[in-house]
Amino acid sequence: MYRSTRSAMLALLTLAAFPLGAQTVYVPAAAHVSGYGGTLWRTDVEIKACAGSAAQVELEALIRDRKNSDPPSRTVSVAEGHAVRLEDVLASTFGLTGAAAIRVTTVSGCALVTSRTYNDTADGTYGQYVPAVPELDAFSHGETAEVIQLGQSADNGSGYRSALGLLNVTGMDVSLDVELFSATGASLGSIDQVLEPFELVQLDRVFRRVTEQEIPDGYALISTGTVGGRFLAYASVVDNGSGDAIFIPALRAPEATAAAIVADHRAADAFSQISASGFDAARTAFPKIFYGHTSHGSQIMTGLQMLESQNPSLVPPQFTEVSDDLGHNGDLGWVDR
Asked: What is the mean pLDDT of residues 13-42?
């Protein structure tokens, strides 16, 4: 039983994870809002169809400081070889003000996505490039996100201020631990932050939450103790004098990138965390799967059927099986089917 159900879980994770990473990206920060010092922050999003096909994408606004289980959405179509620029995307596309992350899901074809967030002034604009981050790049339980090149002046009229952005990319509550350090590695304090499903928060002047002293150079380490939790993180460092800003994505240490993921019989404890949305994603990405296997390969099918019998909402994709003990006694006739 363990072996069958474990195989089912591994199959489901493989099916659900790769298409989401390939087809869903997040613009982690977008704005139509007034900021400190008279700044007026706006965001443009650019979408280009990949060579060889048109593209259709769904944009969803994950509004800051709230649960986003049913976010406002818009569909955008882009002709082959064309690009579309959604200027001031929150106001023009969604009719919103404030701040949000933008989730972009490719419905058909292939699309490239970039964005720019800028201060709109009477003399023109200046701002920062904000990349679209693939969902597969989100940080998981057991990983640490490192955000470096931060700073905080002692006053609001000179130097720099740092805002730390945190985005939950799952449909469950996720608890994050944020620890702040000086450039010498001295811990300045920690912040506990709980994110609701698909919630974005931005911790403005983040160092002020743990110290009043000036931090000319510092960094943040972010992790989650929530099993199954996944998140994105970034910082925006703004010059207090000019309002000029830079976007700083969270980084992984090289050794963390090479870490192996082990899913054995102990993964049974996490079965209850398999969401219906994971099955929905697998069915959407793989509406029909051809699956050839030997006798032991049937355990994947048995395990998926067991999960569905326990929870009718967990419906697996449609499989077409070839299961006549492939390769037995040298039988390779199935290869030509």
From this structure: 73
